[in-house]
Amino acid sequence: MGKSSLIIVLGMGAILSFFTLRMNSNSNENSRTTINMFDQTQARLIANSAVEIYLEKLYKDPSLINTTSGTQKLFNGTYTVSLSGTLPNVRVTSTATFNGVTHTSVADAYLEPISFPDVPAGLYVTATALTNTKLTGDMEVSGANHDPNGNIYNGGYPAVPGISVDNEADRIAILNGLKKPEKVVGLKTSTGTIGHPSVEITSLGIDWKKIYQYLANSADQTFINDIPNGADLGTLSNPVITLVNAEASSNKQIKINKTSGAGILVINGDVKFAGNFKYQGIILCYKQTDLSFESTGTNQIIGGIIAAGKLVDIKTAGTMNIKYSHEAIETVKANLKSDGFKILAWYE
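^ that's the sequence the OP posted. Answer follows.
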């Protein structure tokens, strides 16, 4: 009986020892699996983050195309990135290592251009802006084609209307309000030639709220205070999108102390231009906009103005010339920064 009990006890002990060892083995195996999964996840995170980092770098410096980075540190691991292709297309290959685990992520991306608003006239006034739009002072609007310096180009062709609106009722309202119709020159639909007064219908059917928000989000810079002389508002070779949000300023007004700029100028609120002002490109007036050109000299917009807000008031103490320029707009369009990279495909 004693021997039988001893055998049973020893047998149970052996069985328990076996299960204990097995449980310990499983626990160690589970721990190793958990650690390995963490290392894999961390390596993947580093590789994916590196793709985003180098797309931003390439966006700022296109000369990085067809280059390979050195080994970089990130999240206690390392990575290298290769950029290959011909812009606007690029393939980004990112290889990351964390605790001996390697992960590779590959992304195909496309550099999207800025969505450019249509400019159908020297001055385009939408139906929503028309009832409150005022054009005061010595203002000339020309839809004849000019070069980027404001000189008549190619006999004024391709020409657009001096002023365009959305419908016939708006056209009649603008014509009845012109004090100097001879100063509104441009393409006349009835004859197909350049003449005056040039006020024509161009119904674009555009949602200007979306255009405004898109450009505001894409802006290179935003001003909610006075813009000092010397501020960079862009050049034809390096145009920028500038948002001037006077409605967000403390006194609801912004003064621009600058003589020139190029690109797309998006304006919301009461903006006053001090000094002779020259802008090459597009001025988009949206929401409630009051533009005042205070200089007694000559102010020039070479490109076009789009008045798409609920209330737009443009007045000048000196001379205001709006000169349509296909060449200035196309130059700005060609040189303006892209909207960033869009991921087309992702491989891991």
